[in-house]
Structures are given as structure tokens and as C-alpha cells.
Design a protein that fits this description.
The structure is a single chain. The chain is of the alpha+beta class. The chain has one domain (about 15-65). About 20% of the residues lie in helices and about 35% in strands. It is built from two helices and three strands; from the N terminus they run βαββα. It has helices at about 25-30, 60-65; strands at about 15-25, 35-45, 50-55. Strands 1-2-3 form a three-stranded antiparallel beta sheet, with helices on one face. The radius of gyration is 15 Å and the shape is elongated. The two termini are about 15 Å apart. Pfam families: Zn_ribbon_13. This is Nucleic acid-binding protein. It comes from Halococcoides cellulosivorans.
């Protein structure tokens, strides 16, 4: 049986979810207006992280994508 659950790097199944915001280009960069928001899912064992564009749907869905 092929099990694809867990961190893609180390297989650990515990995560930490955080958020970051970034500026775009042009005027938003000039005035430091943060126009892009991302959720960061990180493995608590090895630190491997993936960014997911924030669609305001809830962090549990994002963890499901990360773990498989």
C-alpha cells in the first residue's frame, strides 16, 4: 500500500500554519501596500514549508492539501 500522507520531505504528520503578506509591483510596492496574502504550512519536524494563496476558506483545508 502506497501512503502519500505526511510531509513530502520527511513524512512527519504534524504541521504549523502561519500567514504572510507581500507587496505586489508598481505603486503597491512603492507605498508598501500588502496586496498578496499567503498561508504557510510548515512541517514541525524538518521545517519544510509550502505557500498557499489565501482564499479565506480555513486552514484545515490547507493542511489536508499539504499532508495528502
Amino acid at each position: 500500500m502506497d501512503d502519500d500522507r505526511g510531509c513530502p520531505k520527511c513524512g512527519h504528520e504534524e504541521t504549523d500554519v502561519g500567514e504572510i503578506a507581500t507587496t505586489g509591483t508598481g505603486l503597491s510596492k512603492l507605498f508598501d501596500i500588502q496586496t498578496n496574502s499567503f498561508n504557510v504550512v510548515s512541517c514541525t519536524n524538518c521545517g519544510y514549508s509550502e505557500l498557499y494563496r489565501d482564499r479565506t476558506s480555513g486552514s484545515s483545508d490547507i493542511v489536508d492539501v499539504f499532508l495528502g
